[in-house]
Specification:
Blueprint: E1 2-11, E2 14-24, E3 29-33, H1 40-47, E4 55-60, H2 67-70, E5 73-76, H3 88-98, H4 104-113, H5 129-141, E6 147-151, H6 159-172, E7 178-183, H7 186-189, E8 195-200, E9 203-209, H8 210-216, H9 221-229
Parallel strand pairs: 3-7, 3-8, 5-6, 6-7
Antiparallel strand pairs: 1-2, 1-4, 8-9
Helix pairs in contact: 4-5
Bound molecules: adenosine-5'-triphosphate (ATP).
């Protein structure tokens, strides 16, 4: 599904990604874990086709990021903020018009599932930070995408909501879609993940099968992360 080969990205002289190579299969949920500034957002934006690259290769279903792949890659980052003047209904209608794969019934049921009662007439400017984040995540997941790129999907949420969101993500994962989740919040996402990638200063420093870590090594992802980051 996603093939990354010797990918490097620089901002001027600063190398944000340095010779990254890995492969993710269809249906997998993969954590992209790294400290602040390690290159997670740069990576997500590159796969989404928002950052051009000269070194290496990014292949989504065998294709470099292009207009066609954008049609089935659902990206959640800080950058795709919802205009404050819009109401929930406005942004829902916008997504219906904008994305062929947006499933409005799925959107409605995700909001019910998380048990968040946001009136559709409410303007984004009147929502809390956590609620806005939930709304943005619900919009991303309501697309029937082949690849979900979720950059810090749990940011700004309290623990109770986080756990509801994780359950919602588990319920909405299917074998035909692949999910890459960049986060700092490791303990809560552990149960979601099939594999983890550790990234440090733009370099891939670990790629693990979570089942192997848990069963063979009897070690949590967080403990492994702390060890590897030292
Ligand atoms: N537009 C930019 N211009 C110059 N440098 C940038 C730019 N965007 C990111 N960087 C730098 O590239 C590196 C990687 O940044 P990136 O945002 O990809 O990391 P991150 O892991 O997502 O961080 P965080 O978890 O804090 O969001 C950092 O050193 C950052 O300062």
């Amino acid at each position: 599904m996603l093939d990354i080969k010797k990918l490097s990205i620089s901002y001027g002289k600063h190398k944000a990604l340095d010779n990254i190579t890995f492969h993710i299969d269809k249906g997998e949920v993969v954590g992209l874990l790294g400290l602040s500034g390690s290159g997670k957002t740069t990576f997500m934006n590159t796969v989404a086709g928002l950052i051009p690259y000269n070194h290496g290769e990014v292949l989504i279903n065998g294709q470099s990021p292009n207009e066609k792949t954008k049609g089935y890659v659902s990206l959640l980052t800080e950058n795709n903020a919802i205009p404050k003047w819009m109401s929930v209904e406005d942004i829902r209608s916008f997504y219906i018009d904008m994305y062929n794969d947006f499933n409005e019934n799925k959107f409605d049921s995700i909001l019910q599932e998380i048990n968040i009662d946001i009136p559709y007439s409410k303007k984004i400017k009147n929502l809390s930070k956590g609620m806005t984040q939930l709304l943005r995540l619900s919009l991303s997941i309501a697309r029937e995408a082949k690849l979900y790129l979720l950059d810090e999907p749990l940011g700004g949420m309290d623990t109770i909501i986080r756990n509801k969101v994780i359950d919602m993500l588990i319920n909405n994962i299917n074998d035909n879609s692949t999910m890459l989740i960049a986060t700092h919040i490791i303990p809560e996402v552990e149960k979601l993940l099939d594999k983890v990638i550790f990234i440090k200063q733009g370099q891939l420093i670990g790629f693990y099968d979570c089942e192997e870590l848990r069963i063979d090594k009897r070690q949590s992802i967080e403990k492994t992360f702390i060890e590897v980051m030292k």
